[in-house]
Amino acid sequence: MKHYVIIGNGVAAAGCIEGIRSVDSEGSITVISAENHPVYCRPLISYYLEKKTDLQRMNYRSESFYKDHGVTVLYGKTADRIDADARQITLNSGEVLPYDALCCCTGSSPFVPPMQGLDTVQSKFSFMTIDDTLALENAVMPDSRVLIIGAGLIGLKCAEGLHNRVKSITVCDLAPRVLSSILDDRCAALMQKHLEKNGISFILGTSAKEFQGNHVIMQNGAEVDFDVLVLAVGVRANTALVKNAGGSVSRGIAVDDACRTSLADVYAAGDCTEYHDISSDTVKVMALMPNAYMQGHTAGVNMAGGQAVFDNAIPMNSIGFFGLHCHTAGSQREGCEMYEESDESHIKRLFVKDDRLTGFMLIGHMHRTGIYTALIRNRTPLSSVDFARLKIEPQLAAMGSAYRDKVLKGAV
Amino acid sequence: MKRIYVKEEWCLGCHLCEYNCAFANSGMTDMVKALRGKTIYPRIQVEQDENGVTYAVSCRHCTDPVCVKSCIAGALSKKDGVIEIDHSKCVGCLTCVLVCPYGAVIEDGSGVAQKCELCMKNSCGAPACVKGCPNGAIVYEERGEAE
Fold it and tell me: Chain B contacts of A43, Cβ < 8 Å?
């Protein structure tokens, strides 16, 4: 009987458990969970603040998930060290756990750059975990003025979540635009306008110079008084365990398309990893929940002796604010051609290079966009489809009758 | 597992399947009251290719469903071959719309996702699009699941 150990208890770990069990129903599985919660949907913490979900419904899997899959979860524990030669890990409690196959699903941690006077701020929070969220919820009052550092996905979802619970929200970012990691200037401007219409204020293109208690002075001279500070600057992959064990690590833990690290019998999945993005042909950290699950599942199958690859990873995000939705996928490669249509409340930008769709940004009209995503993922030559029609509306009709026969007339 | 398949050669392009789908999932007993004057968001959609060939597209209930793997709310699952949405868990992030390669998951008009569940969860009991197709162009049958 094999012994599987998974460090971490997020969605990548859940994928790993399901991957292992799709091959091996016998082996023992032990999960090391730093957080005292069963696996939950991390991106839903903003929906919790918005009261669109609750702690019960945020559970990613059913109550009997671990029992059904024969998993032992060690809550409140962390791993201190991996000894890859001896195939064992040491926990913070001193316990030693041997493994036949190990998966690191250690996720990422909030990154807080040094900011002068930050220690003088009493009421400050990260926004990554349920515990962060409950603490933040406890701190905000209807008359609170909230300052959020970071206009990325986490900061802006936090702003939306808090919107109806506080008096004012100001978001600042060093980048000159909102959602700078996924939107270009034009798309970001449309989204920013919509956010402002819903009462969110922005200070962009500058950073905090100095905090003085509940007061901040920005580099550009702007000053803001606040009651609650949320730090959502960015995240860093948790790579230390693999790095210290001698594994290959850059910005994330390096994994191949079977989710193997450079250490024998050690796999990794989720936000702690860096891996190949086929849309840009580069290796990067893509901390995305769908990819985390798919990596975890792939790792699990391989750990159990099966064969799986996750070899069509791309960055992709589906995110909305105050009713305006946005879909992005792939990359805007240098020298690409762009197809655009837009009006006041919607925009579509498709990026094409070397006869392939490499990326897109869509705001406001989200109908059947997965057909575009599949073009990127499958690296479909655009000369083999009716791209003139696809540009206007994603549809299988433009994909050719052979493809249609395959997907509509048989099981896929 | 039985699934929905289309016979292009028989499809008239009449869009009746879309109306039958919207009605079956409306929770109402009168089709006119359910649909009159309303924008419908059917879970099956008729397409037409450049040669005028029409056919309906709905969820393929994939062997390896990327929507289920991508759902950030744990709201999508596959049970007994049917991919279904737990609407109490869906928060309307629309990641499933972003990843479905067939464009078969649809926003329902109120911001959340919906998809064909083979009429298992409504009062119809059998796919309304199949039952209502006037020319037998949509069938519900076993064709084997791909490995």
Answer: 72, 93
For B115, name the nearest residue in chain A, comparing CA atoms only.
A368
Residue B5: closest C-alpha in chain A: A409
CA distances for A137 relative to A56, A124, A131, A228, angstroms: 17, 12, 10, 11
When pLDDT is cut at 50, 70 and 90, the band that residue B107 belongs to is very high
Contacts with A374 from chain B: Cβ below 8 Å: 101
- Chain B nearest CA to A23, separation (Å): 15
Q: Which domain holds residue B44?
A: 1-58+118-147
What is the complex's ipTM, to 2 decimals? 0.96
Strand order in the sheet with A71-75: A71-75, A28-33, A3-7, A101-104, A266-268
Structure tokens at B59: 């969820």
At A98-132, the pLDDT tens digits run 999 999 999 999 999 999 999 999 999 999 999 99
Does the domain made of A3-43+56-108+236-303 have the CATH classification 3.50.50.60?
A: yes
Mean pLDDT of chain A: 97
CATH entry 3.40.50.10700 includes domain A323-409: no
The b/e string for A39-58 (b: 16+ C-beta within 10 A; e otherwise) is bbbbbbbbbbbbeebeeebb
- In chain B, the largest separation of any two C-alpha atoms, in whole Å, equals 44
Average pLDDT over residues A339-353: 95
A residues 3-62 closer than 8 Å to B (CB): 15, 41, 43-44, 47, 52-53, 57-61
What is the model's pLDDT at position B95? 98
The closest CB to that of A409, out of B5, B70, B91, belongs to: B5
Average pLDDT, chain B: 93
The fold of the A118-233 domain, in CATH, is FAD/NAD(P)-binding domain (3.50.50)
